[in-house]
Amino acid sequence: MGIRVVVAEDSYLIREGLRLLLATQEGIELVAVAADLTELTAAVDEHRPDVVVTDVRMPPGDQDEGIRFAESLTRSHPRIGVVVLSQHLEPEWALRLFAAGAAARAYLLKERVGDAAQLRQAIETVAASGTFLDPLVVEALVQTRARRAPSPLARLTPREREVLSLIATGLSNTAITHRLVLTERAVEKHITSLLAKLDLDPDDTHVHRRVQAVLLYLAAADG
Length: 223
Known about the structure:
Layout: E1 3-8, H1 12-23, E2 28-34, H2 37-47, E3 51-55, H3 65-76, E4 81-86, H4 91-99, E5 105-109, H5 116-127, E6 131-133, H6 135-146, H7 158-168, H8 173-180, H9 184-197, H10 206-222
Parallel strand pairs: 1-2, 1-3, 3-4, 4-5, 5-6
């Protein structure tokens, strides 16, 4: 059985585009589509999918329905992963999405939904209780930080920044070693160093500190 997905998107063209795109993906089963928050709630209650792919803004309010729905799922259906699609880079939405826990949550710019590989990676990541941030979001936030006053990120070396950016895209240590052509030990040393430089609580779990490091980009852009 593949990953069972519910899609929520008020735009007919985008909704149908997602339907057609996911239909071509082996191992992914689209079980329902919804045009608004009411339909999404009913679809999740009926089908209990593995993953929900939802726009940030949906009727009836066209404000932050997708984020609020993800927040409610954390309490009612914590095993369901959520991929939130955003028309624009909105750091406060990303912060809210990850505030209750980063596991099984992804933030993806809507312009990327035509990239089947990118969307599939986000769906597979959250289905496995992982965290995914659109690389374009990370790049924009890195550029934003470069224009701001010195911050903890200014303490990082260029290589540590590069490693952090790859962590933010959801890559494992092993995948980072292949991408940067480094040994796994070298990657682990870079990660240990950057977490220390960012003054993250050493008593927190390693996984949570990795997520906190990525969220520093979002917090800074929002400030």
